[in-house]
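sanity check this:
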Amino acid sequence: FQYLKRFDQGYNLDTFCYRAGSVEGSPVECLQRFLLHCGIMDPSWAELRNFTWFLNIQLRDCEASVFCNPDFVQDTLQGF
């Protein structure tokens, strides 16, 4: 949710990193954001769960990758 919220607001996501336990927004805002980005017109709860699960795995792996660390790659992969 935090990544999608910042993406919609035009923030640079290259420098953002999720902090465990941090809470932003309301459950309604979170659900609205997921519905907006999941890519399915009328998703089931299972489809929303799969979307959020997959997105979470991808973002977690991205944060853990040295190749996505802005301090390591500096500006060589700008916008990647």
About this structure: The chain has one domain: 1-73. The CA atoms of residues 30 and 59 lie 17 Å apart.
